């Protein structure tokens, strides 16, 4: 299996720093990168991947991108079309929002312009190794609850009954303790998400991606079929420190 790497980024223009209350992030085209709270990176990248049956990345052409900020929050809206000579034709509308309470959401609403085969279409979240490896996690999904410690050493890609599997069962809610007593939480909508160790491919992150691989690849998307997904991220900020007592 070939992972989604940073060079898969959609070409949408130069980046800019965004703020959502105590959370900051960087907009890189239509990818959201370097999400931080209290100066700690809790999300490396959120983006949409479109991969052909050979795991090749189908680039997207971005249009009508609008960025709105108000100091305590932001909204980014755009359209993006992926098409190639192999028959892939997929267009989606994206919206990235940040609220004053620190909540960040990335939503996609897409539709196939033709019938085609693909290995992946959907949202992906990269978890930075420093804030993820060796950290506790917990979550829930269609196969039940999950909990444990994310691997500190590289976790080999698992294969069960001839199909690739993630580190744990697919989830629609996931929390990672990125620092002692502080959690970053992910709510996934539109599909179940699986998590793999991208360090198998020399990338310094773990990745949560939509549509579990156990469902088989390549998959066929019919013309007019809609794909709607959303990832919502909330991170617990550091506790405020009490002011030092003044000497009498």
Structural class: mainly beta
Shape: globular
Radius of gyration over C-alpha positions, nearest whole angstrom: 19 Å
Q: What is the distance, rounded to the nearest whole angstrom, between the alpha carbons of the first and last residues?
A: 66 Å
- Strand fraction: over 45%
Number of helices: 0
Largest sheet: 9 strands, antiparallel
Q: Give the number of DSSP strands.
A: 20
**Topology as a string of helices (H) and strands (E):** EEEEEEEEEEEEEEEEEEEE
The parts where pLDDT drops under 50 for at least 5 residues are 1-14, 241-248
Helicity level: under 10%
Mean pLDDT value:
89
Strand order of the largest sheet: 5-6-7-8-20-16-15-11-12
Quick structural summary:
The chain has strands at 16-20, 23-28, 31-37, 40-51, 60-69, 74-83, 89-98, 104-112, 116-118, 120-128, 136-141, 144-149, 158-160, 163-165, 173-179, 182-189, 193-197, 205-210, 219-221, 226-235.
Strands, helices and their partners?
Layout lengths: L15 E5 L2 E6 L2 E7 L2 E12 L8 E10 L4 E10 L5 E10 L5 E9 L3 E3 L1 E9 L7 E6 L2 E6 L8 E3 L2 E3 L7 E7 L2 E8 L3 E5 L7 E6 L8 E3 L4 E10 L13
Antiparallel strand pairs: 1-2, 2-3, 3-4, 4-10, 5-6, 6-7, 7-8, 8-20, 9-19, 10-18, 11-12, 11-15, 13-14, 15-16, 16-20, 17-18
């Amino acid at each position: 299996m070939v992972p989604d790497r940073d060079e898969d980024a959609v070409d949408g223009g130069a980046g800019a720093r965004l703020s959502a209350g105590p959370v900051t992030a960087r907009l890189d085209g239509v990818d959201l990168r370097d999400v931080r709270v209290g100066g700690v990176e809790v999300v490396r990248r959120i983006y949409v991947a479109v991969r052909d049956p050979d795991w090749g990345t189908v680039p997207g052409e971005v249009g009508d991108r609008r960025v709105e900020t108000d100091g305590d929050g932001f909204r980014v809206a755009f359209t993006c079309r992926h098409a190639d000579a192999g028959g892939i034709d997929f267009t989606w509308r994206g919206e990235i929002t940040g609220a004053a309470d620190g909540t960040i959401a990335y939503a996609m609403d897409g539709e196939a312009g033709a019938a085609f085969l693909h290995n992946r279409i959907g949202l992906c979240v990269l978890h930075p190794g420093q804030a993820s490896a060796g950290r506790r996690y917990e979550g829930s999904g269609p196969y039940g609850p999950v909990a444990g410690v994310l691997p500190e050493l590289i976790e080999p890609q698992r294969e069960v009954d001839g199909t690739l599997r993630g580190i744990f069962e697919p989830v629609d809610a996931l929390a990672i303790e990125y620092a002692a007593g502080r959690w970053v939480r992910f709510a996934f909508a539109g599909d179940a998400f699986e998590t793999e160790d991208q360090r198998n491919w020399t990338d310094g992150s773990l990745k949560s991606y939509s549509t579990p691989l156990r469902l088989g690849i390549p998959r066929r998307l019919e013309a007019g079929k809609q794909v709607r997904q959303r990832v919502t991220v909330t991170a617990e900020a550091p506790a405020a420190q009490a002011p030092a007592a003044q000497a009498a």
